[in-house]
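>> Question from a student workshop board

For tomorrow's exercise we were told to take the sequence and the ligand below, predict the bound structure, and bring the output to class. My setup keeps failing. Could a helper post the expected result so I can at least see what it should look like? The ligand is S-adenosylmethionine.
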Amino acid sequence: MNPIDLKPTDLTGLTNRSVMNDLAAIFGEPWLEYRAEYDRVSALGGRAFPIQLDLELNASCNLRCAMCPISVESPKNKGPSTWFDFELYKSLIDFAVANGTKAVKLNYVNEPLIRKDFVKFVRYAKQAGILNVYFSTNGVLLTKPLAVELIEAGLTKIQISIDATTREVYDVMRPGGDFEKVLRNVEMIRRERDTRGSATPLVRVNFVKTELNEHQLEEFLATWEGRVDQVGVQEFIKPTAAAREIYSSRSTNKQQSSFRCAFPFRQLVVTNEKKVLPCCTFWGEQMPLGTLETPEQLLEFWTGDRMRYLRQMHLEGRYREIPECRQCVDGGCRTNE
Ligand SMILES: C[S@@+](CC[C@H](N)C(=O)[O-])C[C@H]1O[C@@H](n2cnc3c(N)ncnc32)[C@H](O)[C@@H]1O
Ligand code: SF4
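>> Workshop helper replied:
Here is what the output should look like for this input. Compare the format with yours to find the bug.
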């Protein structure tokens, strides 16, 4: 079975990590440079501007997953008034491309496919020169016409969260979802991609390890081997709020005093409310850098004192002195209580 590769500066392990590098066969030298740069910043190298931006295009979710903070208020569709403005999005993307951003993730703590005009965000970023445009979804709202549009818009990767090998465990982890439908949708988008002779989007399925589902991890890996391009195994992060209290058992990166987080070296997050956050876990929300009025402020936030402090603390292996980082990395483990 494919081993899980978990970097010492990351909270998500991956099978088949090299499949990302294989896309150089399509995107050529710029892709190779992007991946080399990604590895460099993931090893806590400095950079004048984030290699990646994460953008939250809407505020809502259609599920109420056991481990996720949005489950406290979902399922709820807060509607278009909370949607990220497309004109602002375009100006952010243009500014980011001009300053060397290579990747855009189109979700934060929300379900991105709630937006019916989602594909235009993918298309714009790709056409503007972002090499890696991807997102994570619960996969429930994916349909064949939408999959075809995403493929044609040039989506690089889709990550579909499943977390289980049986409907029973899925329903505990992801209440409101539809296990069989999501499995069908994974197969469907891969088939539509292959039928078109397209190498993208890469298809990754995700598993967040908690005490509710970790007994199914081995079976999950075996089930998906050879059927998708990658499996992501995410360390459980203590949510900032939750519909129920859950933990994970001892995990790989947590509890290692050598842990240093790569997020503040790699990316900034902009929420649907235009708040700029230093990292893409929920705990980033507790450390807002400010509210974005103009694209140029991305540079100010990135090079500002607060980001520099965060990076320095992680470089020195002192994340436990930052309460939010400590909660994020250590808080979800029962043995840390
Ligand atoms: C917050 S979701 C948003 C995107 C989409 N709605 C989805 O479910 O994939 C992004 C990823 O975070 C994961 N996630 C949710 N709660 C988590 C937690 N407490 N710890 C670690 N990952 C979590 C989800 O399983 C998913 O893979
Ligand atoms: S993990 Fe995704 S699908 Fe589940 S509640 Fe959170 S945002 Fe929604």
